[in-house]
Amino acid sequence: MNAAANAAPRALRGRLDLCAINTATLGHRAPIATVIDQVARAGFGAIAPWRREIEGADVQAIARHIADAGLAVSGYCRSTYFPAATVEGARAAIEDNRRALRDAATLNAACFIMVVGSLPPGSRDLAGARAQVSDGIGALLEEARTLGVALALEPLHPMYAGDRSCLTTLAEALDICDALDPAGDGGIGVAVDCYHVWWDPALAASIARAGQGGRILAFHVCDWLVPTTDMLLDRGMMGDGVIDIAGMRAGVERAGFAGAVECEIFSAANWWRREAKDTLSVCAERFQSVC
C-alpha cells in the first residue's frame, strides 16, 4: 500500500508551484530556452518538454537552464512506438527509447512518458502489438531503475487504438506494470491523462488499484470539448468541456499522487494561435479554480 494513500486533495489556490506546463500547450512555436523562461516567469513550478525540443541540442545545458529557472521536470515526452513489422524495427525502437531515457535522466525528469504505439502498417495483429509493447518496456526497465527515471505508461483514448496506442485503459497499463514488476520494486507506473481516461467506467477502481501499488507517476489535465472537431488537436482548456477534472484529481491524490499537475493542451485552432503569455495566464487561473 502506498503510504500516502487516502491523503486529502491539495488546495491549489495560490499554489502554481504545484502546476507543470507541458510544452505542447504552447504549440512548439518557440525555442525551448524561450519556453523555459516563459513558464518560469508565469510562476509555474515545473515543465514537461518534448524530445523534438531537446534531441540534437545540448541536453546538459537545457537541464541547467531549467534548474536555474527554478523549475522541476514533471515528465519527458515521449517514447518511440514499440510495435514494428520486423525484429530489426522493434530493436531499433527499443534503442531509440533507451537514448531518450538517458536524456530524461540528464534533465532530471520525474518520469519518461510511454506512448507505446499500436498496429504497424498493414497489420491487424493487435495481440502481437501488445506483446511487443510489453517486451519493449521490459527491455528498458532495469536501465530506468538504474537511471532513476520511472517509465510512465500512458493509456490513450480508444480512438487511437489503431495507431498511437494499443493501451486504452489504466487497467491494461497496470496489468503490464504488475507483470513486469510483480514485487513492486518500482521504476514503472502510469500517467493518468484526463483526456484519455475520463470516459472509463472502471476509472475509479483503476486509480485506486494504481494507488495501492504506488504507480501513479503523472497526472495530466485538459478538457474534452463537445463537440470535438479534431481527434488530436482540439483539446479544451480546463473548465471548457465535460470532464470532472477536480473529481479526478481528488481521486489520484487520495490514491497517493503528490506530483505536479501537468497542463497538456493540444489546440491548433485555438490556444496555439494565442500569445504564450495569454495561454499561460488562463492555465494559471483555471488550474486554481477548476482543477
Structure write-up:
This protein has 291 residues and is α/β, with parallel strands linked by helices. The protein has ten helices and eight strands. It has helices spanning 32-41, 51-54, 59-68, 87-106, 126-147, 170-180, 194-197, 203-212, 245-254, 276-289; strands at residues 19-22, 46-48, 72-73, 111-114, 150-153, 188-193, 216-221, 261-263. An eight-stranded parallel sheet has the order 3-2-1-8-7-6-5-4. Helix 4 runs parallel beside helix 5 (126-147). It is globular, with a radius of gyration of 18 Å. The chain starts with 18 loop residues before the first strand and ends with a helix. The relative contact order is 0.16.
Describe the secondary structure blueprint for this structure.
Elements: E1 19-22, H1 32-41, E2 46-48, H2 51-54, H3 59-68, E3 72-73, H4 87-106, E4 111-114, H5 126-147, E5 150-153, H6 170-180, E6 188-193, H7 194-197, H8 203-212, E7 216-221, H9 245-254, E8 261-263, H10 276-289
Parallel strand pairs: 1-2, 1-8, 2-3, 4-5, 5-6, 6-7, 7-8
Short structural summary:
By secondary structure, this protein is of the alpha/beta class. It is built from ten helices and eight strands.
**What structural class do the secondary elements suggest?**
alpha/beta
Shape: globular
Number of helices: 10
Specify the biggest β-sheet: 8 strands, parallel
Distance between the termini: 26 Å
| Element-level helix/strand string | EHEHHEHEHEHEHHEHEH
- Helix content bin: 25-40%
Tell me the radius of gyration.
18 Å
β-sheet strand percentage: 5-15%
Mean pLDDT, all residues: 97
Strand arrangement across the biggest beta sheet = 3-2-1-8-7-6-5-4
Strand segment count: 8
